[in-house]
Amino acid sequence: MMAWHEPGLLYLDPATGSIALQVAIGGLLAAMAAVRIYWGKLRSVFGRRDKAPSGDSLTRVSERGHSAAH
Q1: Whether residue 32 has pLDDT greater than 90
Q2: In b/e form, how buried is each residue of 1-21, taking b as 16+ CB within 10 angstroms?
Q3: Distance of CA 20 to CAs 1, 15, 25, 27, 34, Å?
Q4: pTM for this model (two decimals)
Q5: Bridge partners (DSSP) listed for residue 67
């Protein structure tokens, strides 16, 4: 015995486009907020590396001539 299946009809009402637009805008705004929140971490990961360190507090010499680590 064979069963015949009628193809289903797809109905999209006008509210579907509105919801899809809201989802797209919300996703874009959420991505922008995440980038703004984590900008420092993203910049350190993708930024250029300095060839020479700008200065370490442990190697600086204090006024008395001793290093800060002592």
Answers
A1: yes
A2: eeeeeeeeeeeeeeeeeeeee
A3: 42, 9, 9, 11, 21
A4: 0.47
A5: 61
